[in-house]
Write a structure and sequence with these properties.
Length: 468
């Protein structure tokens, strides 16, 4: 599939940080688009030389609730593209604006305006990704069609929804039940149920490092430090499976919405879970992410709090070593951010990002399917990218192309897109796409440990994954 050729509108790129800088060369490479058609809006003038390198204009501007309409409306017309890769610029506001102007839209995270994630005036439920998603689903119900707005289409959320579908097809085939890709949501949900998938982890392990190690009072990461601190401090959230026997003591249901997910009364960065990637068993952080909710919702048979089938779905993220130390320090500071930040990019000296989906509980126990991409491969494939960012930017590029080719589909989540088309577009940038089985379970080698809370009768209960 190709973008309509050529794209003759304007592409407004909001935010020009780790992801914005990494996606620009991909957009210019894969879409028939002249640099003069692109306008970057970012408050950060330090990044101007990279824009200039591609002949693209950068306008120094910080968007806010008060100015976004006046600033953006004159720049947007029918068929133009609003690509939101910023932090702290509300997705819902830009999605409404795109509808007024019949423009296209894509983002990689449902962002609220600055401060909303930690606003103590709001309850944990109101500050959750579940609530942010429910507001957009309500908007979708109220919009009869409209221009395409593809929400949360990065790596995770984003790519992983397509990996889940491909992994289900692999699993069906390997269990001797090969089948064609289902044609609708219920078809995918019934397939996951039939295959006995109880839990899905978005299992990521980032091993990239730079020669200069983290120092005191510094937060180091391979993608947005602001973005990571925000989501790490939100309440942990997970899609809540129909096989789960009871909510954890700090688990809460929401008083509204689809009921596909629950939240915990503690930050994601204080919630560790056991998981597995091709590097072996690991412990990740159960940081809230919208894919944990949307995938669980998409794969539900039945409705509400007690559906016939739903897998438990959550993120299990082992960030790079210096980000791990940064989180440790952040927790010690009672979640008050460090005074310095450092984004690892050109200085990365080695390592890779393993990002995949781990399907658990079926007849072959555990199946991980995903991208293993080293920093050297990423650099050879596209400038201004690390292994972490390229998994995101390739999926953004694929989503932009798909939206241009399908301009009138309204608001869509990644789960609603055709996974083969998107994977076909991203595939050249994902390094090794690996599918591996393992006999790992969260109960393995724990006989001698003091784990009284374990449910030894059913390895796939959430209580067994959680590290308290
Ligand atoms: N889905 C995924 O896989 C995935 C992965 C990484 C990042 N993300 C998301 O992508 C977005 C960008 O991440 P990043 O790593 O590039 O972040 P970053 O912090 O590196 O860059 C953010 C950019 O937004 C700009 N910005 C901040 N406030 C702004 C404002 N008020 N108006 C306009 N621009 C503003 C910053 O100047 C910067 O250019 C975030 O929402 C992040 O959560 C998603």
């Amino acid at each position: 599939m190709n973008a309509p050729s050529p794209f003759d509108g304007r592409l407004l790129l909001i935010g020009f940080g780790c992801i914005g800088q990494g996606v620009l060369p991909l957009l210019l490479r894969h879409i028939d688009l002249q640099p003069a058609q692109v306008l970057i809006i970012s408050p950060d003038d330090a990044d101007r030389p990279i824009a200039e390198q591609y002949g693209v204009e950068l306008r120094t501007l910080r968007l806010s609730e008060d100015n976004y309409q006046a600033e953006l409306a004159p720049l947007l017309g029918p068929g133009d593209f609003l690509l939101n890769l910023s932090v702290q610029v509300e997705s819902a506001a830009l999605i409404a604006l795109r509808q007024e102007h019949n423009a296209l839209y894509l983002d990689t995270c449902t962002e609220p305006w600055a401060g909303a994630y930690t606003d103590s005036q709001q309850s944990a439920s109101e500050r959750s990704n579940y609530a942010l998603r429910e507001r957009l689903l309500a908007r979708r119900r109220g919009e009869a069609g409209g221009s395409t707005a593809l929400i949360t289409h990065g790596a995770n959320p984003g790519l992983v929804s397509h990996l889940v579908k491909q992994a289900l097809l692999h699993l069906a085939s390997d269990l001797g039940q090969p089948q064609a890709a289902p044609l609708d949501r219920l078809g995918w949900a019934s397939m996951a149920q039939r295959l006995g998938v109880r839990c899905i982890h978005i299992a990521e392990r980032d091993s990239q490092y730079a020669a200069q190690r983290k120092v005191d009072d510094e937060f180091v990461n391979t993608w947005s430090v602001d973005g990571f601190i925000s989501e790490a401090c939100q309440p942990a959230e997970l899609g809540w499976g129909s096989h789960e026997k009871s909510l954890p003591v700090d688990g809460r249901r929401h008083a509204f919405g689809c009921q596909a997910a629950v939240y915990l009364q503690r930050p994601g960065a204080a919630t560790r879970v056991r998981t597995w990637t091709p590097s072996g068993p690991t412990q990740g952080f159960l940081v809230t992410h919208s894919e944990a909710i949307s995938i669980a919702d998409y794969l539900t048979v039945g409705r509400g709090e007690h559906p016939e089938y739903r897998p438990t779905v959550h993120y299990a993220y082992q960030p790079c070593d210096d980000a791990l130390l940064s989180l440790h320090e952040l927790a010690a500071r009672n979640w008050q951010p460090q005074s310095r930040q450092r984004l690892l990019d050109e200085d990365i000296a080695g390592g890779r990002d393993e990002l995949g989906v781990l399907l658990l509980g079926h007849a072959r126990t555990a199946y991980w399917y995903g991208s293993r991409l080293s920093i050297d491969e990423a650099r050879a494939l596209c400038p201004h990218n690390s292994a972490t960012s390229l998994q995101v930017t390739a999926t953004v590029m694929a989503g932009v192309i798909w939206a241009m080719a399908n301009p009138d589909r309204g608001i869509l989540e990644p789960d609603q897109l055709p996974h083969e088309e998107i994977l076909g577009l991203c595939r050249p940038y994902l390094g090794e796409l690996v599918g591996l089985y393992s006999d790992w379970t969260p109960l393995q080698d724990r006989e001698r440990l003091f784990d009284e809370a374990l449910d030894r009768d059913d390895p796939w209960q959430f209580v067994n994954f959680r590290v308290d």
